[in-house]
Design goal:
alpha/beta; 8-stranded mixed sheet; 4-stranded parallel sheet; 7 helices
Length: about 280
């Protein structure tokens, strides 16, 4: 049975039953925050409702992987924010707590739609990132806290973010790290108000951009979409404009990780930024 709720829905918290880390984070959410089971179900699974800082929050668990939740928004009206809690995987296996907005800058290789990004809730992601850093220090966890670039599905027309635990099975089962991600997701939800503040577009550097993360944690710079070095070759004026327009906050300028941009892409990138009238700063 499909669950269609009206305008009472403000924020949607989403886990996946196919994801060990997601289920562990979900367990921590329910251990530390008050959610009540509703009479309604979503695709035959339980639905939980809570109130966080006077915001209505609905908590659901999908049967599919979160990256494939492309049709999720059509079941709910007036969504203001979607927060996915999930695992993060990497070949290095580095213990990582990360945050990013989903969407595809090029092909849709892992869910979502090609050349379509979700709406980036920049301040909410920064709040989650700072919470991860704070709890990691307080709990003395040996994890890296990092922004990830914009990647994978779904591609949604509502503010959407991922709070992730990685990067291998060992970390996915780490209850303390899962608790950190739970607090980060709930902090983003608690403070979210659709505030039309300012943000920046990050361009260049690796998938996990240490420079951008440091700017956010130390200097308060608020990043929305982040375009990594490996994706710049497929970025044109349409994609850059989309990354600017599909950010909750006003994107004031682009921050370029200049050494993290291939030489052959630099002049074309600058021309494209000028074409869409977006100023930039090199770091």
């Amino acid at each position: 049975m499909y669950l269609v709720l009206g305008s009472v829905i403000m924020i949607l918290l989403v886990a996946s039953s196919k994801d060990i880390a997601s289920l562990n984070i979900a367990k921590q959410v329910q251990s530390h925050y008050s959610f009540n089971k509703m009479k309604e179900t979503f695709l035959e699974d339980p639905v939980y409702s809570g109130e966080v800082n006077r915001k209505k929050v609905i908590f659901i668990t999908l049967k599919e992987e979160t990256v494939h939740a492309q049709n999720l928004a059509r079941f709910f009206n007036d969504l203001e924010l979607v927060v996915f809690i999930s695992r993060h995987s990497s070949a290095s296996g580095t213990p990582t707590l990360s945050v990013h907005t989903p969407g595809n800058l090029g092909e849709a290789k892992l869910g979502g739609l090609p050349r379509k990004v979700s709406v980036a809730p920049a301040i909410a992601m920064r709040d989650a990132l700072k919470t991860m850093e704070r709890f990691k220090e307080e709990m003395q966890l040996n994890y890296v806290v990092s922004y990830e670039c914009t990647h994978h599905g779904p591609s949604l027309d509502v503010p959407t973010m991922f709070a992730e635990l990685g990067s291998s099975e060992k970390q996915w089962s780490d209850s303390k790290a899962a608790e950190v991600v739970a607090h980060a997701a709930m902090e983003a939800i608690s403070k979210f108000n659709g505030y039309k503040g300012s943000a920046v577009l990050g361009i260049g550097g690796p998938h996990y951009n240490e420079r951008f993360t440091r700017l956010a944690l130390k200097d308060g710079v608020v990043f929305g979409h982040i375009i990594p070095k490996y994706a710049i070759s497929c970025v044109d004026a349409e994609i850059l404009s989309q990354c600017v327009e599909k950010t909750v906050e006003k994107v004031e300028y682009a921050v370029l990780d200049w050494k993290g941009i291939r030489g052959e892409n630099k002049s074309r990138l600058l021309e494209t930024l000028q074409e869409i009238n977006l100023r930039f700063e090199k770091i």
